[in-house]
Amino acid sequence: MRILGIETSCDETAAAVVEDGRQILSSVVASQLETHGKYGGVVPELASREHLRAIVPVVRTALEQAQTTLDQVAAIAVTEGPGLVGSLLVGITYAKSLCFVRGLPLIGVNHIEGHIHAVLLEAGDKIEFPALALVVSGGHTHLYEVREGFEYRLLGKTRDDAAGEAYDKVAKLLGFPYPGGPIVDRLAPYGNPDAVKFTLARMKGNPLDFSFSGLKTAVLRWTEHRDVAGEIAARRALQQPELEDWLAATPQATLDLLASFQKTVIEELLRRLAASADETGARSLIVSGGVASNAGLRAAANNASLPGPVFFPKPSLSTDNAAMIAAAAFHKLARKAFADFTLRADANLTLA
Ligand code: KG4
Ligand code: ZN
Q1: CATH code of the domain covering residue 36
Q2: Could you tell me the distance, in angstroms and rounded to a whole number, from the CA of residue 123 to the centre of ligand 1?
Q3: What b/e sequence results for 274-299 when a residue is b if at least 16 CB atoms lie within 10 Å of its CB, and e otherwise?
Q4: Which of 94, 150, 239, 309 is the most buried (most CB within 10 A)?
Q5: Cβ count near 24 (within 10 Å)
Q6: Domain check: are 288 and 321 in the same one?
Q7: Per-residue pLDDT tens over the stretch 222-260
């Protein structure tokens, strides 16, 4: 059973063909980084227009690479939310049109459920339930209990910034380009993670909730007490920099700050994961979403004392892609949980 997946919730136009929920026959991602990079973040109106330009060739390429025609597809799955409403609409409208013309069933998929299924694509047979899923991306920091049959219970979430958003904002404060997560990840090993101590506000209410906005403010205060204008200008002037160029343009004190910031984020994430594993008796732990490609987080998770193995998607499946959407749709196909043509974009769709 082949499913064509379509994902346009943010700034990647993606299409993929996945067989039986597991085997990726193709996965095409057209990134809009060049468009948004110069603005330091995603510009929603530009994102919609880029999706409009890219959607037809991206879907066509995914079908070609999978050597699959629409006649061989059992259903079309599309991200219905959460995300940018204008971006979501492009994928949904295109998916509906294809389904209408070809008489194919349509499946709406929650983007967060897609991120969780990115792990199941590779490690599906090894995941034992109940499992925990920590979804850490530019838009989400959500911790779920996942029960057999893909039933979700929200255990905790961010009260302000998402983890990826904190990375992006801290990087921006220091003159690094968008998205900041990958570059901070590459530079952090060159700094002393114990150099800067961040004091984090205690969570009132649910102890499994997260808060990252204080960290961003602490970094802002740190920059105010130093003369960072020169190094920021030097970094902004770099053209297509390699790692050595970033290192040359970044003083040791700033590398120490980045390492300390990253260590604090990782500790916050893993502490909640460990606490919720105790609470739920989870047998497997899943970490996914863009921040799951963080090398420091992967290493720390593997060394942490957690009750079960931690599963990460490979980096190309951590960030937004359509294979995860097609994979998440597979169990809905089995249950014939189809959407009709009233399916609409829901910017704030929740999973549980
Ligand atoms: O899942 P994703 O592609 O899109 C959303 O659904 O948001 O995640 C993008 C986010 C960005 O905030 C980016 O900075 C962050 O993931 N990210 C990372 C890394 N790679 C991507 N954050 C930390 N370390 C990384 N290696
Ligand atoms: Zn995402």
Answers
A1: 3.30.420.40
A2: 21
A3: bebbeebebebbbbbbbbbbbebbbe
A4: 94
A5: 21
A6: no
A7: 999 999 999 999 999 999 999 999 999 999 999 999 999
